[in-house]
Every structure is written in C-alpha cells, then in structure tokens.
Amino acid sequence: MKALEATKAVSIFQESVLDWHKKEAPHPNPYPDGTLEFTLYQKNHIDTIQWHIEDEIRRPDIALEEVVALKRKIDKLNQDRTDMVEKLDDFVIEMFRSVTPKPDARLNSESPAWLLDRMSILELKIYHMEEQVKRKDSSATKEHIEKCQSKLTVLLDQREDLKQCLGELFDDYAKGIKRVKVYRQMKMYNDQNLNPSLYKYQK
Asked: Which InterPro entries match (predicted)?
C-alpha cells in the first residue's frame, strides 16, 4: 500500500458520503465483499449513518423513548465502526507482514486504521461544512457563511495533512523505520460479560 492509497481512500469515503445523501438512506456497497475497498466504503457508510442519527438525537422536540432508541442505535453503530477499524488494521498487518523492522524501529501512537477513521469522519465534516457555505435561506447570514468558509478552508487543509501522514506512515512501515503493532479496542460497554450494568441483571 503506497502513499497514493491515501488519495484512493479519501475518494472512496467521498463516494460513500455522496451515495448516502442521494436519498438520505443506506446505499448498497459497490465493492466486492472482503476487499479493502469494500471495508473502506463500509467504514464511512457507518460513520455517515451515525452522523445523521447524532443530529436527530439533538432535536429538542423528540420524545424520551425515541432518544433512548436512537442512543441504542448509536451504541450499535459505534461497535460496528470499531469492528470496521479492526478489519482495516488486519489489511495493514497483512500488507507489511513480510517487512522486517529495523532494530531501532519506532512505534506509532495510533494505527493506520484509526488514522483512516479520522479521515473518514473528516470527509463528513467537509461535506456538511460545504452545505453551510452554500446555504441560501434567510437565516444563513453573511457572517455565518464567512465563518463556515473559514472553517472549510481549515478542514480542506487538514485533509491534505492527514493524507500525507498516512502516506508517510506506510512508507515508514515499508522501510522498517516503524513497526506495525495493533492494539484492539476491547470495548466493554456492549459486552454483557464486561459491563456491570448488563451482567448483574443476567439470570
């Protein structure tokens, strides 16, 4: 996986965001199951669905029972998101399995998949900030548009920086300058054997 793959990943994330917004509904994954492309698309698709549920749960007019239902959907999506990140890390481990790290090879504080996670969510931020910049309704003041344009400029700059960071990390792995080491998230809140609020009520 070379630095150009960072651009490819961003392109797949953008594709997923646009596909969802065509009907504001889940969209079939266009890539073959089990491929890296499928996993990247699915990762962002989960992020996109969760983004909009997070918006909905903040509406001041929704009933309490609906808030609870939405919160449980968010918990499920968080778990799905983590599962997708770990699948992406599996791809990375396999890519660099044949590379022998140098004796002084360093670790990275986050795995490539969690960097990809940030890149995926960044594409959602960019899409929705662009929406704000293009708003024409009467409540979108000139000041609002200018503030959003300023934020969009920063987000676009961040996109390029993260692409560079991912490419450099892959280069370091390929050269053995850094060694691949992955820590699983080991989430506890969804696990009936680890969350006391769940297992103490089991029969």
From this structure: DUF4254 (IPR025350)
Helix-helix angle 112-133:4-23, to 10 degrees: 50
Q: Which pLDDT value is given to residue 186?
A: 55
Q: Which portions of the chain are predicted below pLDDT 50?
A: 1-3
Beta bridge pairs of residue 178? 106
Res 195: pLDDT = 63
Question: Which one, of 151, 82, 146, lies nearest residue 120 by Cα?
Answer: 82
pTM of the model: 0.88
Residues 80 and 112: beta-carbon distance below 8 Å: no
Looking at residue 110, what is its pLDDT? 87
Angle, in degrees to the nearest 10, between helices 112-133 and 36-57: 50
Q: What is the pLDDT of residue 138?
A: 79
Q: Where along the chain do its domains lie?
A: 6-195
d(CA 22, CA 166): 29
Distance of CA 154 to the CA centre of its chain: 18
- Token digits for 79? 């778990």
